[in-house]
Structures are given as structure tokens and as C-alpha cells.
Amino acid sequence: MADLDSIDYFSDLDLIPDPHPYFRHLRSIGPVVELPTHGVVAVTGYEEGAEVLRNHEVFSSINSATGPLPPIPFTPEGDDITGQIDTHRGQMAFGAMLVAQDPPAHTRMRRLLSGLLTPKRFRENEEFLVGLADRMIDGFIDKGRIEVVADYAHPFATLAIADLLGMPEEAHKEALKVIGDLPGQIGAEKDMEHNPLGDLALLFYGYIAERRQEPRNDVMTILAQATYADGELPDIMEVVSLAAVLFGAGQDTTVRLIAAAMKTVAENKDLQRSIREDRNLIPQFIEEVLRLDGPTKSHFRLVKKPVKVGDIDVAPGTTVMLIPSAMNRDPRRFDDPDTFQLDRKNVRDHLAFGRGIHGCIGAPLARAEAKLTLSKLFDRVDDISIDATVHGPVDARRYDYEPNYTQRALRNLHITFKKR
Q1: Is 232 exposed, middle or buried (0-12, 13-18, 19+ CB in 10 A)?
Q2: Does 1 fall in a domain?
Q3: Does any domain span residue 2?
């Protein structure tokens, strides 16, 4: 591994298997650190990061998904670059997506989406998930082993979000094919598009357009006829884009969480026994998994106005890298932060799903899917273990993660079990 003081976080593959030694190195310098590459300011401190997340007046989300790569397509001028960001938004990767929007556009779009994802809709979706989990477990339970990511988590999460959005069941097979590249991929062969979920948008367009012309008694009609708070009917492509974004985001977050949770229970038999015997511990278990091994390693903000982050003065146009994986292990916030504690009192303080106006809107779905997966598996199998023939023995495990600087994403997880 290269010297930690000079390493390029955005390209060094040595950091992929375990980035935490690097994050601890940054924290040893300070909670806010200037990196040696790309002019990036990195935040490992919990309070400092939470403040950035709250302050959308100074920090734009335009580069949230990609950070400094590619660079912003303009030269910052003056003490407020808000106008430049608005002018060039169409040239920036992910610029059309909700995750990259700033108020007031973000507020308007988020309220539209919140009106669709009601508690009633989540309850209806959970009924679908119960049957889906049983059907998927039926498909592999007699084998005594499974690759969790491709053979369970991805199809489960994809079909769950398809149902939540009311995609007709005959389209579910098509939905399973629409899995794009993650933002932040190291060595990606193609540039990220303005909206990389174009193929998925086409899938939704026909359904939305049809139901605007001929409403039905289904969820897709509710989506098609949803209005902004002022009663205005959105342009059809705005609705399609929102549906596509939710589809992609709900899929990725849930897959990573399920994989991390399964890896944790398979590696720790005492912990597995505890939550198997007391299912009321599963929610707390999920939160501690999110804190220690959440799906997001880093995300970003672009500074709009001169500001101090921690003790560092930061100029407009600077990329600030927020590192939830490090902020969630800040010893100033969490006692013995590198240790898994099932009884941790302040575990829900973690920032795995963000904070503020850009807090993950799909977090309830991700939690529900992970909890249901564990509970159903505990009902039907015993002795969930890591498959040592693939990942190696206990003292020499080998896990393959996506070469990505934003996501902590297991490429595969092979487990074994005994049918009950």
C-alpha cells in the first residue's frame, strides 16, 4: 500500500478490501483534513459532518454521487457560485437526479415523492415482501448453500421496489435486467451520464403515460396522477425520473445492507444465536450493522460560499467528502467505536442513511427488507456460516468488494446452512 499521507483515495485499489485503516489515519490528523489529490477536503468527524449535512445554504448536493470526478465544468467565480451551479447543472453527472438537487427544486420533488411513499403503501408492500421472501427461500433451501448477493439480495430488492412503485407483475422480469453501474466506480470504462437510469425511465414511461390517459385502480395510477403541493401536475418525465431514481437507490442500499447483515451473523455464531433466540433484537442488530458496515463509504458536497469546515477555511468550488464509514466510528460520539455492540444505547445516531433534507427516503424499506430476511431465514435454517471453500478459513478470510470509492459493496457472499 502507498504511503497513507500521499495515497489517492479515488484510484488506489489497495483501499478497497478494508478502508478503515486509512480513515483512522485521516482522523489521527484531525476531524477535517485536506487530501493531497483533487483539492478535496475530507470529513471524518461526526459533528463536523452532521453540520455539513444540515447546511444546504452553503453546501450544494450537485456532486453528491460522484465527488471530484469528473471535475466541475466551470471555473468558480466570486463568493457565491450558486448561479454557476444552476447554469451548468445539465452538464454534470447525475445532475438531473433527486440526490443532486438543491432547494427549492429538491423540496418540491421530495414532497412529491413523500406523498407517494405513505405508511399505507409501505404496509401493503410489506405483505408482498413476506410472500416473496418465502418463495425465494423455497428456491434454495434444499441446496444448503447460496450466494447471497446475486441469488437473493439483488432479485429480492429489485422485486420489492418494483412492487412498491406498482410496476405490473408481468414487468418484473424486465426489471430484474435493469441493474446499472454504481457511481464512484474506480476504473470505469465509460463516463457517467446526466441521468444514467435512462433505460429504466423508458420502462416506466409507458405505464405512466397510459395511466394518465386511462386511470386504473392501482399504485401506478397514483404515481401517474400525483401533483405537487400547489396542485400542479408534474411533467411526465419528472415523474418517470423520480420513479427511476427510487428504483435504483432502493435496490442498491438494500442489497448492500442485506449482504453486510448476513456476513455479520455468519461470522459471529454467538451473535447469531442471540438474535435468533430473541427476534426483538433484530432491529438493534440492523442499526449496529449500518453503523459499522453501512453501504455508503463516502458522499460529497460542493461548497457554494466561503465557509469554515472544522478548523479549515474552504473556498467556493471545493469538494467536501463526507465519510459516513468514519463518522460512524468517531470515538467522540461512539464508545469503543470499532466493536460491534448489540446493546449500544446511541446506535441510531449513526449517519449511514444521511441526515437533513437528503436523508435516504428509502431507509424504511431497506430496514424492513433486512429484518424480514433475517427473521425468515431463522425460521427455516440453522447454523448460517461463511462458505470457507470460497472465502477461506476463519483466520484468512477473502472477500471481494466493488472497486468503488463511494460504496461499500460486497460483490458476492457465499454462505452455508442446515435446513430445519
Answers
A1: exposed
A2: no
A3: no
Q: How many domains does the chain have?
A: 1
Each residue's pLDDT tens digit, 216-259: 887 788 888 888 888 889 888 888 877 777 777 667 889 999 99
> Which DSSP symbol is given to 151?
I
Count Cβ neighbours within 10 Å for each residue of 325-352 and write b for 16 or more, e otherwise.
bbbbbbeebbeebeebeeebeebeebbb
Residues 6 or more apart from 355 whose CB is under 8 A from it? 50, 53, 54
Contact of 386 with 263, CB cutoff 8 Å: yes
Question: Looking at residue 176, which CATH number applies to its domain?
Answer: 1.10.630.10
**Cα(247)–Cα(220) distance, integer angstroms:** 13
| Domain containing residue 357 | 13-419
- Give me the mean pLDDT over the 118-124 stretch: 79
The verdict on residue 294 lying in a domain is: yes
What residues form DSSP beta bridges with 13? none
Q: Which of 181, 194, 193, 192 is nearest to 252 (CA)?
A: 181
Helices 282-293 and 269-277 pack at an angle, to 10 degrees, of 150
| 232 CB-near residues (< 8 Å, 6+ apart) | none
In this structure, what C-alpha cell is assigned to residue 99? 440526490
Distance from C-alpha of 184 to C-alpha of 10, rounded to nearest angstrom: 8
Give the integer Cα–Cα distance in Å for 237 and 178.
18
Cβ proximity of 99 and 353 under 8 Å: no
Q: For residue 385, what is the enclosing H or E element?
A: strand 381-386
Is 251 among the domain residues? yes
Q: Could you read off the pLDDT of 291-313 as tens digits, one per residue?
A: 999 999 999 999 999 999 999 99
All residues at 6 or more sequence positions from 235 whose CB lies less than 8 Å from its CB, including other chains: none
Query: Buried (b) or exposed (e) across 39-72, using 16+ Cβ within 10 A?
Result: ebbbbbbbebbbbbbeebebbbbbbbbbbbbeeb
HEC readout, 154-199: HHHHHHHHHHHCCCCHHHHHHHHHCCCCCCCECCCCCCCCCCCCHH
> Sign of the CA dihedral 89, 95, 96, 97?
negative
Q: Which residue has the cell 484531525?
A: 30
3-state SS assignment for residue 231: coil
CA 5 to CA 9: how far, in whole Å?
A: 10
What is the β-pairing status of strands 41-43 and 32-34? Answer: antiparallel
Backbone phi, then psi, for 4, in 5-degree steps? Answer: -65, -20
